[in-house]
UniProtKB/TrEMBL annotation:
GO terms for biological process: cell division; chromosome separation. It comes from Janibacter indicus. This is Segregation and condensation protein B. InterPro entries: ScpB_csome_segregation (IPR005234), WH-like_DNA-bd_sf (IPR036388), WH_DNA-bd_sf (IPR036390). It holds the Pfam family SMC_ScpB. Keywords: Cell cycle, Cell division, Chromosome partition, Cytoplasm. The keyword Calcium does not apply.
């Protein structure tokens, strides 16, 4: 016994409704998922073109965004994106604006202009002392130059217990647990992209070359053993 055919629309409104339903289907007859629908646009048709589109993206990002990510989002060649970014950096870098565009931490984003740092600092701090202590800065430097490194080795370099300072740096997002030492099982720490951003660096290669003046790993091991 065969199934009955679908009912034939009898009114113009039913025909129109059926036509709209068919138009909403993909070629294979499957309705598209809501998450898969993307808004089509042409950057060239936007009022400000690629320049304004890049500014709009940089305005909402929480972390530096790469030129490749911008090129993918705007569907433009990477070379064109880089030219626009370089132009924006020159345009906003003259100090006549309170902000600028910089390539820091491997990506681009808006930053307040350094000329207005005193104003920003006064507003953000509002009389509160939120800068890192000398102990925190010293510990952060050891991690930056000797990462990945354990707490024991950091303590050996500084000559004091660094547990509290390490917790502070972890809380502020400047360092992170990166791995475990295979022999001792100790947690090893390294710096984060946020550290690069705050220091105005593109990579750890941009750190001043003072690492050779820190003790070698073998010396640190001896200091750790002596402290036990």
């Amino acid at each position: 016994m065969t199934e009955p055919d679908a009912p034939i629309p009898e009114t113009a409104s039913e025909v129109a409704a059926e036509a709209l339903e068919l138009e909403s289907l993909e070629p294979d007859g499957v309705e598209p998922e809501g998450d898969d629908v993307q808004v089509a646009f042409d950057v060239g048709e936007l009022p400000g073109g690629a320049r304004a589109a890049i500014e709009a993206v940089l305005m909402v990002v929480e972390e530096p965004v790469t030129d490749h990510a911008l090129a993918s989002a705007l569907e433009l060649p990477v070379e064109e994106i880089r030219e626009v970014l370089d132009d924006l950096e020159r345009h906003y870098g003259d100090g006549t604006h309170g902000f600028t565009v910089r390539n820091v931490g491997g990506g681009w984003r808006f930053y307040s202009h350094h000329a207005y740092a005193p104003v920003v600092e006064r507003f953000v701090l509002d009389g509160q002392q939120s800068r890192l202590t000398g102990a925190s800065l010293e510990t952060l430097a050891v991690v930056a130059y000797r990462q990945p490194i354990s707490r024991a080795r950091i303590s050996a370099v500084r000559g004091v217990n660094v547990d509290g300072v390490v917790r502070t740096l972890l809380t502020r997002g400047l360092i992170i647990e990166v791995t475990k030492d295979e022999e001792s099982g100790a947690t090893l720490y390294g710096t984060t992209p946020y550290f690069l951003e705050r220091m105005g660096l593109n990579s750890l290669d941009d750190l001043p070359p003072i690492a050779p003046y820190l003790p070698d790993a073998s010396v640190l091991d001896e200091l750790v053993n002596e402290a036990r």
